[in-house]
Amino acid sequence: MPAPSRRHPAATALTGFLRLPFRRIVLRTALALLALPTSRHAGAQTSGSIALVSEHSLRGLSLSSRRPALQLRIEHDAAAGWYAGTFLSMVELPGSSAKSQLVAYAGHARRLASGASWELGASQAVFPGERRYDYLEAYAGLSFDRAGVRFYLSPSYYGAGKTAYLELNAFHPLGERLRLVARAGLLHRIGEHGSSRRNRADLRLGLDADVGDCTLQLAWLARQRDPVARARHARALAASASYAF
Q1: If phi over 0 gives left and psi between -120 and 50 gives alpha, with beta otherwise, what is residue 59?
Q2: What is the pLDDT along the chain (245 residues), one digit of tens a residue?
Q3: Which of 58, 168, 183, 221 has the highest CB neighbour number within 10 Å of its CB?
């Protein structure tokens, strides 16, 4: 009688990990990379920032009911282009008990011979106390010296259906500590969403000022009207102050 096969513990652990829902893989990968000690990886580093914003806005929508919010971001850049991070912000959504939003993300970036760089990654947004708004996004991006483009896909954006989102970012220095920043985005709803309007564009133009380790920003925001969106549209003017560490 043949002896029963014995699997290596690492193989068993890997199989169990791959059987997890994709959103848990993103979360666990992000937290694991954040826990890596930087001394073991050449070029690896951990950074973060804390910010006070006049309003937590995303893609033209207000996620804090037009009220100020505190935000925290921590990111770890590991060896060979891998990175992971977490973002935490106060939120206030209409008809929702959620008071915070947690986003975990992980990806891989690589520089090309031309000087540009590409990246692939995924993120999971979680709203404790209101899980119906949780959503997963996968993204691909291309970055240049002063501009970049990212394309996102979500199977259930805020629990409302499949979406695709195209984002363009750029900046122009006005001096050693001042720069103009711009972001434009286009959201496209895939499939039936109960509305004939499937596209929504948004725009953000701002002025950044570096003061030591702090960055101050004053921005103007605009977006198309959207009867499907559950959150309020963001205010036209926004301000923020962030500290990097």
Answers
A1: left
A2: 444 445 555 445 444 544 445 455 455 555 554 454 444 445 689 999 999 999 999 999 899 988 999 999 999 999 889 999 999 999 998 788 899 999 999 999 999 999 999 999 999 999 998 888 999 999 999 999 999 999 999 999 988 889 999 999 999 999 999 999 999 999 999 986 555 578 999 999 999 999 999 999 999 999 887 766 666 788 899 999 999 99
A3: 221
Amino acid at 4: P
Q: Token digits for 4? A: 């029963």
With beta carbons less than 8 A apart as the criterion, state whether 139 and 123 touch. yes
The Cα–Cα gap between 221 and 206 comes to 9
In the chain, which residue ranges form alpha helices assigned H by DSSP?
9-18, 22-34
DSSP 8-state symbol, 95:
T
Residue at token pair 């970055």: 143
* Both structure tokens of 154: 């979500």
How is residue 81 annotated by DSSP? G
